[in-house]
TrEMBL record:
Domain of life of the native organism: Bacteria
Residues annotated as transmembrane: 35-51
Keywords in alphabetical order: Membrane, Transmembrane, Transmembrane helix
Protein name: Uncharacterized protein
Length: 215
């Protein structure tokens, strides 16, 4: 596939602006999942220590069962694996923005607002910065797929809000009968426009469809 000229948004005679790490709040936002996991483990460990020191084994059994029972089931393990890949994909998307021109001259990268498992991989809701558009993400679709260790990557732009886009990471074929627990159910498919001509665009339900009349 020929490379999109939008891949090079800066003149060739200029140095690529260095990507910055962002402020403290931005860095905390990027590792929010890891912080929540660490905080949860700390609370869990403190609760176990307090229960064992006081000789109360019922809270100990309840807390350990809350973790061991889901881990022993197939659905629980699938949930953990799916959300693990969500964390990995979010960091890989941030890294590809830092390593390419998908950041502003001030070094700011787009914000990954939310990422969720899907029937084929993951879907990330992204808010772009000034100077970056969904078309640039589409131009780097191959690089995004390679960075996320995926089969392919699809980009969808919001019909009304051009600064919002969805990056769909495709890792496997869609399983029949499985529904997506994330963005499809929350935002619906008809609010997003595919940027690839070979992908079927969801119809706009606000437009009246005129059916041909039988002769």
């Amino acid at each position: 596939m020929p490379r999109n000229p939008r891949n090079q948004i800066y003149p060739a005679n200029e140095d690529l602006p260095a990507a910055g790490g962002g402020g403290a709040l931005v860095r905390l936002w990027r590792i929010r999942t890891e912080l929540l996991v660490v905080a949860g483990l700390a609370v869990f460990a403190l609760a176990l220590l307090g229960a064992t020191r006081e000789g109360r084994w019922v809270p100990f059994i309840l807390l350990t069962s809350a973790i061991s029972v889901p881990a022993a089931t197939r659905s629980g393990r699938n949930w953990v694996v799916a959300h693990f890949w969500c964390v990995v994909t979010r960091h890989r998307l941030q890294r590809i923005c830092l390593e390419t021109t998908m950041h502003t001259r001030a070094g700011r990268i787009p914000l990954v607002l939310w990422i969720t498992p899907s029937t084929t991989g993951e879907k990330a809701l992204i808010m772009t910065r000034a100077g970056i558009s969904a078309e640039e993400f589409e131009a780097y679709a191959e690089e995004i797929a390679a960075a996320c260790w995926a089969r392919s990557a699809n980009v969808y732009r919001h019909r009304r809000r051009a600064h919002l886009l969805i990056v769909e990471i495709v890792r496997r074929d869609e399983t029949p009968g499985v529904t997506s627990p994330g963005l499809d159910r929350l935002y619906g498919r008809h609010a997003w426009v595919s940027l690839r001509p070979d992908l079927e665009e969801p119809p706009d339900l606000r437009t009246e469809v005129v059916l041909p009349r039988a002769a």
